[in-house]
Write a structure and sequence with these properties.
Blueprint: H1 2-55, H2 59-70, H3 74-109, H4 119-128, H5 133-142, E1 145-150, H6 159-174, H7 182-200, H8 212-245, E2 257-261, H9 275-303, H10 315-327, H11 342-356, H12 372-388, H13 392-409, E3 415-416, E4 418-421, H14 422-435, H15 447-459, H16 473-492, E5 499-503, H17 508-521, E6 524-526, E7 532-534, E8 537-542, H18 545-560, H19 562-570, E9 574-580, H20 581-588, H21 590-610, E10 614-620, H22 632-637, E11 648-653, H23 654-661, H24 664-686, H25 695-718, H26 724-730, H27 734-737, H28 760-769, H29 780-788, H30 792-804, H31 806-821, H32 824-831, H33 837-862, H34 872-904, H35 910-927
Parallel strand pairs: 1-2, 1-11, 2-3, 4-5, 5-8, 8-9, 9-10, 10-11
Antiparallel strand pairs: 6-7
Helix pairs in contact: 1-2, 1-3, 1-7, 1-34, 3-6, 3-34, 3-35, 4-8, 4-24, 6-7, 8-9, 8-13, 8-24, 9-11, 9-13, 9-16, 10-11, 12-13, 14-16, 14-17, 15-17, 16-17, 18-21, 20-21, 20-28, 21-25, 25-29, 29-33, 30-31, 31-33, 34-35
């Protein structure tokens, strides 16, 4: 079996190499066509030399390589940069297509075998464990996964470029068709050459920063292109597997997997996200989802030629048509004239009612849908009638999927979260309370005094201010957000916005401020019979190490407050809590952040359970390792099972959205693996592993000291070394990354040079570009080495932890990945840009020594000969990519030095900047990571 799998893998890898070679040859033809043979010769010489240097470092060859790169004439240099950058784009397309091909090959050749990580594998596991039907139903009714798109600026590519990528991917997929004729293959090759030529002549760089509305459109692209179709297919596969292994039940799986978004709602540090923008976002989302439903209904109408001259439809269908003839005027949809085809008549009225939702004049009338339940009721009516005359195949194929789509996307496409920084709420509250005559020194109150005051205000149903009170523009905007949420819930449905996230939550008062503002807008209120209605939940975002420490006690304080506890009860005794992986990593380093996040998960869960509250943890993971990035299924399984509670939310952002959801096949596989992981995690939560030894407790005692050592080592450099910020700014393209125009949000929370005000994304992005990847591994080696302290028994303990303790194994494997992608030979070139020789030599030596120490300790713990021996596919991918990334890195260093020299003398060079930005895009594509 293993030999067969190896042979199959070898065969499919051959196809990947074939595709890369094929696209590389087409790129070569385009280079010759556009820049002459000389351009291709330059590219090939640099590529071959870089490859040879990776195979064996020869000083003379290295000198020749550097001279070749530095000797390029600016016009040629620009084209060489673009050639390498586009090559990586093509390689990434080939690799994505190959993932889809591998899945299809597996399904074709495996027969009855079940693919690991598939939905079927998870259901087979439940069956093999003899899980009874009622428990399976209970398990499925309790799982929940929401994937939340964010507008974090980590997607370096323009939408125009991604559109070309999609066309190339589709045409490459078509080449696998064995029935193609010779001429058809040639025609496909010509089309591919046209697309690569288009790519060459398309500007990769944005000419301006995207607006928030641009970002909203970008997020909606994934719903339009893939998710609207793929998401219901994942549900269908789960139901197929359940019917196969638990056939005694007729399955309709509850909604457990859906997408949300922050885009248009996340105003933390982004003044462009106003209440008006949030309202416009929701309207755009509704327009898209109505358009999708109209398109599907028109397609359904073409298939619904069932005639009452042949079949007997349900009387309720005819009754609903008669009613709509009297109440719905067909003014933009043609009336269906064949009275014997009732389904087509019914669908014309449904389309008209959807279209009328775009116009305010139809509000409150029977001429439009007001609740999504009304639309679902009409679809279910069609479904019942079809089954009545035994057209169940049609009902199952077309209507069932549409009903699922409406259940998933409603009339607002995706729930929108609102987020704002805690300081903004305090500023607004100070002004409001002063205006209301409550206190003019709110900001100076102690935390206990604030809690007492806010709890009293929340308990009082009287408004604090009249709507036209004289307030600053900032406070007016803050209050207007809550009014907009109230209005949105009325217009689009209560589920359109239900969560208000508070960045940098430091105390219970931060959540109470939001609830008091919610009360002012009618989102928190008490009914005449004394019950609390709460349609918006304040959700804390715990980001720094100190905040994570304080989180359990903050939540305990809130749960002790009677009115706040009533608000939680009104939300189904569920509370959402967000944990920030980016800022905790930036604050304490990789090892400490991971450990403190785990402690916080456990501590908050324990606190909530004391008060009978179920928790939904929202994991704020980025795409890069230094921001908690990892494959979706692994990120689910990495959580302690007992903390899954009321569900999981995970951020999906930037380049992660593109890599996971731009192609249907990959989107399906990613969501299938996530579902499989979710089912497994839910099973483990209900049936904790019984074979755990007493070692687990001992291992949990070891990790605090390892974490503490790592944090001290990390913060000694990042916070306490006076030369560090100089080292960071001068040896990375930090300031230039900010000129990429990849997001509407500023790279700093304030116009400040303080490290604390730098956002985590540019922090990680800059270290990734310069090949240090420092946030993803620094201090781990020291922490492990000091724990072991030369004691073989302690080393054996770490080895056992790696084999048997999943948290530690995940940590070590992520560290391996970071070290494999880092390259200090290249990083040394970036360090050469630091003017102060003492800072350069001292800090680079510290980094280099820590890198070597971390590598040595990881190899000792894992027992491997080389980093990533445990995942040879990724190891090989990095090995093959490096020779192509290296030239871009050397070119970037040269260009940064030239650009900074110009700027220091008061000049600027837009062409030089442009070339720097092109290298940033190219390296991001080569490493498959930005920030």
């Amino acid at each position: 079996m293993t030999e067969m799998a190896t042979a199959s893998r070898s065969s499919t890898n051959h196809l990947l190499r074939r595709d890369v070679r094929f696209l590389g040859n087409i790129l070569g033809e385009v280079l010759v066509h556009q820049g002459g043979r000389e351009l291709l010769d330059h590219v090939e010489k640099i590529r071959e030399t870089s490859k040879a240097l990776r195979a064996e470092f020869v000083p003379e060859l290295y000198e020749e390589f550097v001279n070749t790169i530095t000797g390029l004439e600016p016009g040629v240099r620009h084209q060489v940069i673009r050639a390498f950058a586009i090559y990586f784009q093509l390689v990434n397309i080939a690799e994505q297509n190959h993932r889809i091909r591998r899945k299809r090959d597996y399904e074709r050749s495996a027969g009855e075998a079940v693919q690991p990580g598939s939905i079927e594998s998870a259901i087979v596991e439940l069956k093999d464990k003899n899980l009874p039907l009622d428990e399976v139903q209970e398990l499925l009714s309790g799982i929940s996964l929401e994937l939340v798109m964010t507008a974090h600026p980590t997607e370096a590519m323009r939408r125009a470029v991604l559109d070309v990528h999609k066309r190339i991917a589709n045409e490459m997929m078509e080449l696998d068709n064995p029935s193609l004729t010779y001429r058809e293959r040639e025609r496909l090759r010509e089309q591919l050459r046209n697309e690569v030529l288009t790519l060459w002549q398309t500007d990769e760089l944005r000419d301006r920063k995207p607006t928030v509305i641009d970002e909203v459109r970008n997020g909606m692209y994934f719903f339009h292109e893939t998710l609207f179709n793929v998401l219901p297919d994942v549900y269908d596969e789960l139901e197929r597997c359940l019917a196969k292994y638990y056939p005694e039940q007729k399955w309709h799986v509850p909604t457990y997997l859906r997408f949300g978004t922050w885009i248009g709602g996340d105003r933390d540090g982004n003044p462009s996200v106003t209440a008006d923008v949030t309202w416009r976002t929701l309207n755009m989302q509704r327009n898209l989802v109505i358009h999708k439903y109209e398109t599907l209904l028109k397609g359904l109408m073409r298939k619904m030629s069932f005639s009452t001259t042949i079949v007997e439809v349900k009387p309720e269908l005819l009754e609903s048509i008669a009613e709509e003839r009297d109440t719905v005027e067909l003014h933009s949809v043609d009336r269906w004239t064949n009275d014997h085809e009732p389904y087509r008549i019914k669908i014309t009225y449904m389309i008209q009612k959807l279209q009328n939702m775009r116009e305010d004049k139809y509000k409150g009338t029977a001429q439009r849908y007001h609740q999504v339940s009304e639309f679902i009721a009409d679809l279910q009516l069609i479904d019942r009638s079809l089954r009545h005359h035994y057209a169940d195949f049609v009902a199952d194929t077309y209507v069932k999927k549409l009903i699922r789509q409406v259940e998933l996307f409603g009339f607002y496409l995706a729930a929108l979260d609102v987020r704002q920084h805690s300081q903004e709420h305090e500023n607004a509250m100070s002004e409001v309370l002063a205006q209301a005559g409550v206190t003019d020194r709110y900001a100076a109150l102690s935390e206990e005094e604030k809690i007492e005051l806010l709890h009293r205000l929340l308990s009082d149903s009287r408004p604090l201010l009249h709507e036209n009170a004289a307030l600053s523009e900032g406070t007016k905007e803050c209050l207007n957000v809550y009014r907009t949420i109230y209005r949105a819930q009325e217009e689009f449905g209560e589920g359109c916005i239900t969560t208000y996230l508070i960045s940098m939550t430091r105390g219970a008062s931060d959540l109470l401020e939001v609830m008091v503002f919610a009360k002012e807008a009618g989102l928190f209120r008490r009914t005449p019979d004394g019950n609390v209605v709460c349609t918006l939940q304040s959700a804390p975002l715990f980001e720094t190490i100190d905040d994570l420490h304080a989180a359990p006690s903050i939540m305990k304080t809130l749960f002790e407050l009677p009115v706040y506890r009533e608000a939680v009860r009104a939300r189904g005794d569920m509370h959402e809590i967000m944990l920030g992986y980016s800022d905790s990593n930036k604050d304490g380093g990789m090892v400490t952040a991971n450990w403190e996040l785990r402690l916080a998960l456990n501590g908050i869960t324990e606190t909530a359970s004391e008060y009978g509250v179920k928790l939904k943890f929202f994991h704020g993971r980025g795409g890069a390792l230094g921001r908690g990035g990892m494959p979706l299924n692994r990120s689910i399984l990495a959580q302690p099972p007992h903390t899954i509670g009321a569900g999981i939310k995970i951020t999906e952002q930037g380049e992660v959205l593109t890599s996971r959801y731009s192609m249907e096949g990959i989107a399906y596989r990613s969501l299938e693996q996530a579902t499989s992981a979710l089912v497994k995690a839910a099973y483990l939560a209900r049936h904790p592993s019984k074979d755990k030894s007493g070692d687990d407790a001992q291992w949990q005692e070891i990790l605090p000291s390892i974490s503490e050592t790592a944090q001290t080592k990390y913060q000694d450099l990042i916070f306490r070394d006076p030369g560090f910020m100089t080292f960071f700014k001068e040896s990375t393209p930090l300031s230039e990354v900010g000129e990429l125009n990849i997001g509407s949000r500023p790279s700093k929370r304030k116009n400040s040079e303080r490290f604390e005000d730098l956002r985590a994304i540019p922090w990680v992005f800059a270290w990734t570009q310069s090949r240090y990847l420092l946030p993803a591994w620094y201090a781990a080696g020291t922490a492990f080495e000091q724990y072991v302290a030369g004691d073989p028994m302690k080393l054996d303990t770490l080895r056992r932890m790696y084999k048997e303790y999943s948290f530690f194994a995940t940590l070590v494997d992520n560290l391996q990945m970071a070290l494999a992608k880092a390259d200090l030979l290249i990083a040394r070139q970036y360090a050469g840009m630091i003017k102060d020789e003492e800072i350069r030599t001292r800090i680079f030596t510290l980094v280099e020594e820590e890198y070597d120490r971390t590598k040595r300790m990881l190899l000792e713990i894992t027992g491997q000969d080389e980093i990533l021996d445990n995942v040879p596919v990724i190891q090989e991918s990095i090995r093959l990519r490096n020779p192509y990334v290296d030239p871009l890195s050397y070119l970037q260093v040269q260009l940064l030095a030239e650009l900074r020299q110009h700027r220091e003398s008061g000049e600027d060079d837009t062409e030089l900047l442009r070339e720097v930005l092109l290298t940033i895009n190219g390296i991001a594509a080569g490493l498959r990571n930005t920030g």
